[in-house]
Amino acid sequence: MPILMSNTETIPGKTIVEFYGVVSGNTVRAKHIGRDIMAGFKNIIGGELKAYTELLNDSRQEAVARMLAQAQSMNANAVVNVRFATSSVAQGAAELFAYGTAVRVQ
Fold first, then answer.
1. What are the sequence ranges of the domains in the chain?
2. Are the beta carbons of 30 and 98 closer than 8 angstroms?
3. How many CB atoms lie within 10 A of CB 77?
4. What is the pLDDT of residues 28-60, one digit of tens each?
5. CA gap 53, 8 in Å, rounded
6. Parallel/antiparallel/unpaired status of strands 78-90 and 4-5
7. Terminus-to-terminus CA distance in the chain, angstroms?
């Protein structure tokens, strides 16, 4: 059964019966020089930076998968209060961090 996930304090229609604690997942990704060149052009003419959007989506999926794997290892079946944070780690590299509270719901 997949682990439920919510950015609120509860899962609608479910009751939290046990708390396991904070779980997290992260990934650090570096920008690609080709993406930087194309982003530079987009900055001049405007528009969505699709390569960066894809990079962010991939990073978010990986961080969430790692967070859910940690929750599963604790026997949780849900994660509530899910949040995301980003930070610059080095020139051209950024971290995407996902965290929440692992719980058991019925």
1. 4-105
2. no
3. 19
4. 988 765 555 555 555 667 777 787 788 889 999
5. 25
6. parallel
7. 13
- Residue carrying structure tokens 């993406």: 35
Give the strands of the sheet with 4-5, arranged side by side: 4-5, 78-90, 93-105, 16-30
Q: Around Cβ 56, how many Cβ atoms within 10 Å? A: 15
Cβ neighbors of 76 (< 8 A, separation 6 or more) are 3, 20, 23, 102, 103, 104
Is 1.10.10.10 the CATH classification of the domain at 4-105?
no
pLDDT tens per residue, range 4-36: 999 999 999 999 999 999 999 999 988 765 555
pTM of this structure: 0.84
How far does Cα 87 stand from its chain's mean position? 13
